[in-house]
Design goal:
3 helices; mainly alpha
């Protein structure tokens, strides 16, 4: 796998991370909504890392 392919995968993974974060945030149910909200924030924090890696392997 070449570097451009890895960069493209990381780029799309960043958008998937943002989408998954929003979905986790809104789909968290009772009894412990705080856990879902924290996990949504955690997944959302992956996006900048993926975008930075994408930029590195462009």
């Amino acid at each position: 796998m070449n570097e451009k392919t890895i960069g493209t995968i990381c780029f799309y993974a960043g958008f998937v991370s943002i989408t998954a974060s929003i979905a986790i945030w809104f789909l968290s149910k009772e009894p412990d909504m705080a856990h879902g909200e924290r996990f949504g924030i955690f997944v959302g924090l992956w996006a900048p890392t993926f975008f930075a890696l994408s930029n590195r392997w462009k």
